[in-house]
Amino acid sequence: MAITPLKLPREQREQMISLIQEYFEVERGEQIGDLAADGMLDFFLKQIGPYVYNQALSDSRQLVNERMASLEEDIYALELRPGRVR
What we know:
Layout: H1 10-28, H2 34-47, H3 49-78
Helix pairs in contact: 1-2
């Protein structure tokens, strides 16, 4: 299954570009333009995005497994225990 590159809504992309520019200004004392920040955003989305995505899937899988175990316990609790007929 091929994964398509992450497409961000324009507003989110602009916000992330601003955050990258702010980071460079505050942490490195450098100013970078919109094009450079946009290039960095693309780089991070392509290179780091899959790791973040896979971790999110792993976290989701763990949560589903925990919920299923809890549900299975609830179903076992509903089982009737045969008793003696008097």
